[in-house]
Design goal:
Chain lengths: 109, 115
């Protein structure tokens, strides 16, 4: 079962940063935080993952709090194509990926 | 390098018929996962397979559903005697090494409609 809590929906103005929060207060020491997104019924797409350090790649940044009980996915300059459902998942090697209901992000022109 | 290929993309069946969904993983990937997504819901894990082995089928319904990943050819998700509640999008994902980064690559899904 999903062990994360995310807001159901969020809006973001085009060109602004989109900050998507995720609570994972019961995360274990060996569990990673993963983010995927699903654009309108397409297959989910990997975005980023981290353990305890902040991470950045060409798509997004991931900020994990020091106690690891929450994290924020940042899309620095949101575009209309970033409108999607964003899933925050905690995952440990040997387990499965359990997707919750995610956050539906709408980027507004 | 082709991604995960699923077919058919759309499948219509009448109640009681059989549905077969196929998934070809990315080249070099030997781990396959099946997920089901009901309308307006998140993805639900069904089964994890390696070549010729079912590793975790904890998400599979106890009856009518089966999956295989033979030594040669695609992975098959088979649903016997379909009912209307089986109408959903079925997504397949593959990974290079399960104990690596854990990154999954998803296909575009197969949408099953049961009349």
């Amino acid at each position: 079962d999903a062990k994360t809590t995310q807001p159901t929906s969020m809006d973001c103005a085009e060109g602004r940063a989109a900050n998507l929060p995720c609570n994972h207060s019961t995360i274990s020491g060996n569990e990673y935080v993963y983010w995927y997104r699903q654009i309108h019924s397409q297959g989910p797409q990997y975005i980023i993952h981290g353990l305890k350090n902040n991470e950045t790649n060409e798509m997004a940044s991931l900020i994990i709090t020091e106690d690891r009980k929450s994290s924020t996915l940042i899309l620095p300059h949101a575009t209309l194509r970033d409108t999607a459902v964003y899933y925050c998942i905690v995952y440990a090697t040997g387990n499965q990926f359990y997707f919750g209901t995610g956050t539906s992000l709408t980027v507004i022109p | 390098n082709a991604g995960v290929m699923q077919n058919p993309r759309h499948l219509v069946r009448r109640r009681g018929q059989e549905a077969r969904l196929r998934c070809s993983p990315m080249k070099g990937h030997s781990h396959v996962y099946w997920y089901r997504q009901l309308p307006e819901e998140g993805l639900k894990f069904m089964v994890y397979l390696q070549k010729e082995n079912i590793i975790d089928e904890s998400g599979m319904p106890k009856e009518r559903f089966s999956a295989e990943f033979p030594k040669e050819g695609p992975s098959i998700l088979r649903i016997q005697q379909v009912v209307r509640g089986d109408s959903a999008a079925y997504f397949c994902a593959s990974s290079l090494q399960f104990r690596n980064t854990g990154e999954l690559f998803f296909g575009e899904g197969s949408r099953l409609t049961v009349l």
